[in-house]
């Protein structure tokens, strides 16, 4: 019922002030009944103190008629439920968000830390692109496809919110993160394929590394994938030491901006440097403007009339009033 009142609108609002007349009519009715009472002398009032159920119901017919009048006034005001239906359609872009989840992403040069800010801005970016297919790849000492390229943005945003450092083996393998992201876009037939790769470190290759960044770059170029790279660190070349997974210290040895610029330039993208939350938000907004989708949003407003319920209530009240007046409370002939 509360939800109904929250969504109701009136086509003829000017009628509603007439409801204020009902208390006035009730007061006038009460005053008139008092003035019509006659007085006469009796030896005792004992007989008048005995009341039957009719004594309690004597004013009910008038009350029902007053309620019926109120329902009729509301019905004339034409209560409606407004329902706005929006349909979004268009030609989208296939995008993969490739996010570094290494231990250094817990560094607190961004508040509360780099990873939390990266998650917030990535989720906001997803919500701004309703027709695009977007996926999520995470990487640190290895890479993993956390969410396939899809239009299910609600589930994707939930996955982004649940990101945490320690989900993968620690380290920073930009090449593997890029290669996995390209592989997710390989089956795509979209007119444009884009990767947004965010990291706060530089390549830290172990002995078992599968793909180096230059090889991953060549794969991206072959597949026609445009890569936007984002370097996330408050200070140029800063080394940040934080407590990482299980309390172990994690060292971030600074950004490899030369590599990130090369990947972006050779794939037709762009490199951006984020030094705080606001700058990262601006970067995502710039990428959003650079990669525009053909979007068409149509709105259709539909009104569902509700006056019929008040008409039905008024009729029911009048029928009940007549039954009481002419049957149950009928005066003696």
Automatic annotation (TrEMBL):
SMART domains: VWA. Keywords: Cell membrane, Membrane, Transmembrane, Transmembrane helix. It holds the Pfam family VWA. The chain crosses the membrane at residues 12-30, 56-77, 307-328. InterPro entries: Aerotolerance_reg_N, UPF0353/GerABKA_families, VWF_A, vWFA_dom_sf. PANTHER family: LEUCINE ZIPPER PROTEIN 4, SPORE GERMINATION PROTEIN. This is VWA domain-containing protein. The lineage of its organism: Bacteria, Pseudomonadati, Bacteroidota, Chitinophagia, Chitinophagales.
């Amino acid at each position: 019922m509360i939800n109904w009142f929250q969504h109701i609108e009136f086509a003829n609002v000017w009628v509603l002030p007439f409801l204020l007349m009902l208390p006035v009519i009730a007061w006038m009715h009460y005053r008139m009944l008092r003035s019509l009472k006659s007085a006469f002398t009796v030896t005792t009032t004992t007989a008048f103190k005995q009341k039957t159920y009719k004594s309690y119901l004597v004013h009910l017919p008038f009350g029902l008629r007053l309620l019926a009048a109120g329902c009729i006034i509301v019905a004339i005001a034409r209560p409606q439920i407004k329902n706005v239906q929006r349909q979004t359609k268009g030609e989208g872009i296939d995008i993969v968000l490739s996010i570094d989840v290494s231990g250094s992403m817990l560094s607190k040069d961004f508040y509360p830390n780099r990873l939390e800010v990266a998650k917030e801005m990535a989720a906001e970016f997803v919500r701004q692109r309703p027709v695009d297919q977007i996926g999520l790849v995470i990487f640190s000492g290895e890479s993993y496809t956390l969410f396939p390229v899809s239009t299910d943005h609600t589930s994707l945003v939930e996955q982004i919110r649940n990101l945490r450092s320690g989900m993968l083996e620690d380290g920073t393998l930009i090449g593997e993160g890029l290669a996995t992201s390209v592989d997710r876009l390989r089956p795509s037939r979209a007119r444009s394929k884009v990767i947004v790769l965010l990291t706060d470190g530089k390549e830290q290759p172990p002995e078992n590394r599968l793909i180096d960044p230059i090889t991953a770059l060549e794969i991206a170029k072959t597949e026609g994938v445009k890569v936007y790279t984002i370097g996330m660190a408050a200070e140029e070349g800063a080394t940040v030491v934080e407590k990482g997974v299980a309390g172990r210290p994690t060292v971030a040895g600074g950004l490899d901006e030369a590599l990130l610029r090369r990947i972006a330039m050779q794939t037709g993208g762009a490199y951006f440097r984020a030094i705080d939350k606001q700058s990262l938000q601006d970067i995502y907004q710039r990428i959003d403007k650079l990669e525009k989708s053909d979007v068409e949003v149509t709105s259709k407003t539909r009104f569902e009339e509700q006056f019929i319920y008040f008409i039905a209530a008024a009729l029911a009240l009048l029928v009940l009033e007549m039954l009481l007046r002419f049957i149950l409370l009928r005066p003696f002939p």
